[in-house]
Amino acid sequence: MPNVIIVVGIQWGDEGKGKIVDILSEKADFVVRSQGGNNAGHTIVAGEREFKFHLIPSGILYSNVQCCVTGGCVVDAESLIGEIQALEKRGFSLLGRLHISAFAHLIMSYHKDFDAWQEELKGDLSIGTTKKGIGPCYSDKANRIGIQVGELLNFSHFAQHLNQIISLKNKEAAHLFQKPPIDDKALLEKYTQYASFLKPYISLTVEKDVLEAAKAGKKVLLEGAHGSYLDQTFGTYPYVTAAGTLASGIAAGAAMGPTEIGHVVGVVRAFTTRVGHGPFPTELKQEEVNLFLSNEEAREIATTTQRKRRMGWFDAPLVRQALRWNGATSMAIMKLDVLDQLAEIKICTAYRLAGKVIDCPPPMTPDWDRIEPIYETMPGWQKSTKDTSSYDQLPDRAKAYVKKIEQLCGCKISFISYGPQREKTIQMHRLF
Ligand code: GDP
Ligand code: IMO
Ligand code: MG
């Protein structure tokens, strides 16, 4: 249906999904997060105000939008309550507008402990996770020992279930990590408070409500989290997150069939970044990083963990493959302004692996360390794009760069973004 749009990250996350969701939300009726948890960090700059969302959908700034967190998500109650309270302090009312699915799983405090302990234990095999408990929570879900958000609605059942799980977790903590048992009384006390706070936000029908709204022609936006190469199956495994991050996973996490989806907007940076460990073929040398960061609008500190993002040139084969995986109908090119000052800009157009030219990343992650990017160099525009307000006003060389990306990736452009602020966006065609 043309009234249902997925916004999905095409590289390794932090492409600027939050900004595109915010822009499209102006006309949306529903904005939905359907996978991942508060490992995501989506930034919106609205006038003088900046917002960072972790689990709350980026449509929340518009009072007409219903915001939904559906069953594919994992929910850290403490962090969610913090996000709700921070927004309330800034004058936003969320009650009746934020709906959390009973199907979603709870990230418990022991999941966060296990995330940190596993990372430590793995040593050289560590992933560089956000330590938000995402992997341990999804693995408990797959292992059928997770706790669902809906269980908070029947607290005596929740308490009993939690006690059973704690005895299992204590064994794991002692045997695998030599850690002391969980303080079950303190944990239950905390969850008594979380349950009473969250009760009015928990919904038994949110997926049904979203689907019925979509079928009735309401505008529904599904907000992807993370990036395509962090997808648990098709990403650079094992350096991935624990959820599906592709458009198919986003739809699945909202219990939506693929035939409901009208458009898929792939969000792509005009260059590449990555947070955490794992291969990165076009990663920059330190002197090149300094050139990028001489632009004070670069903002390359991770939203959730405050780690420095690793940076790289635009990688066309990587983007082209992910646009296909997602069935992207258009792409949003973000952060063009970060390239404003560069004299030369490189684009990776193919790779060389064992003497052969290949036009697609290899399936097996260890091979990524052996591929050599083949670059084409384009002249930079060396002009500020800051005061641009239309495509025609972009410097000619910036237009050539963007067109080159479009041609190499085989996907039409719907947005060009040249600053963090809402208004620094050129929309090439209407979606909603
Ligand atoms: P997300 O996780 O995909 O929503 O992206 P993040 O919010 O984690 O990271 C993107 C960062 O780039 C944020 O600080 C945004 O405010 C910023 N940003 C988004 N679009 C642009 C842009 O076009 N230019 C610049 N300079 N910054 C941008
Ligand atoms: P948004 O939605 C960037 C990365 C982590 C780590 C790996 C696994 O803001 O684009 P996890 O805690 O998920 O088990 O960590 O995935 N990662 C992200 N990197 N942006 C994100 O989300 C990310 N979510 C997870 O850095 O390398
Ligand atoms: Mg982010």
Task: Please describe what this structure looks like.
- This protein is of the alpha/beta class and 432 residues long.
- 31% of the residues lie in helices and 20% in strands.
- It contains 12 helices and 20 strands.
- The strands form 5 sheets. Strands 9-7-5-2-10-1-11-15-19-20 form a 10-stranded mixed beta sheet, sandwiched between helices. Strands 14, 16, 17 and 18 form a 4-stranded mixed beta sheet that branches. It has a two-stranded antiparallel ribbon with strand order 3-4.
- α5 packs across α6.
- The mean pLDDT is 97.
- The structure holds guanosine-5'-diphosphate, 6-O-phosphoryl inosine monophosphate and magnesium ion.
- Residues 9, 13-14, 39-42, 127-130, 132, 134-135, 225-227, 230, 241-242, 275-276, 303 line the site of 6-O-phosphoryl inosine monophosphate (IMO).
